[in-house]
Amino acid sequence: MEPRQVVAAVGCFYAMMLAAAVAWLWSRDRLVVLQTEAVGRHGVLLASAAGLLTGLCGTGIFLAVRRAGWARNVEVQVRSMFAPIGASSTFAVVLVGAVAEEVFFRLAVQDAFGLLGAVALCAFVSTCTVGLAWLPFLVLHATALGLLMHHGFGLLGTTTANAIVNHLCLRRILNP
Questions:
Q1: I need a surface site. Which of 11, 29, 84, 97 has the fewest CB within 10 A?
Q2: Rounded to whole angstroms, what are the CA distances from 110 to 8, 10, 84?
């Protein structure tokens, strides 16, 4: 697949995910949570700090886990997909993906099905991409992000954490 096609496909996927989340919230007359949970109950500074700390911890866990042999297969797959598109496109995908994933999983799904439902769906969707070997890490990652939302750090905290983990892990995979 050409680099432009990869970026376009990923962009379309995340646009559909974001649209589905907003439509789902709207259909349930819950669109107001998009506004009330954008920053969360603790304010910009604490939400950002919680997201930063969670993202750095998640990255540390990823770096410890990636030394296992089964993790190398995922890295090869990720490297083959992202290396051709370049650093700036990868960064854009990470940012757009973090927003779309958090609005969908942490806002729409968690609002409808609670923390356990959001963790289960997020882990299931993610394992379809990277395989079952990563299930424990994905469950831990989804749980940490869900707990940030549950404890009032809002989309700012969860999106910050998600973007940091994805960016730092991709950077490490692409520049070993």
A1: 29
A2: 28, 23, 34
Given pLDDT bands bounded at 50, 70 and 90, which one contains residue 43? Answer: very high
Give the start-to-end residue ranges of the domains of the chain: 3-174
The pLDDT tens digits of the residues spanning 96-151 come to 999 999 999 999 999 999 999 999 999 999 888 777 878 888 899 999 999 999 99
Helix (H) or strand (E) holding 145: helix 135-150
Half-sphere exposure of 102 (CA within 13 A, CB side): 31
Question: Considering Cα of 33, then 36, then 41, then 46, what sign does the dihedral take?
Answer: positive
Token pair for residue 102?
Answer: 């958090």
| pTM of structure | 0.91
SS3 content of the chain, % helix, strand, coil (to 5): 90, 0, 10
Tokens of 58: 């998640």
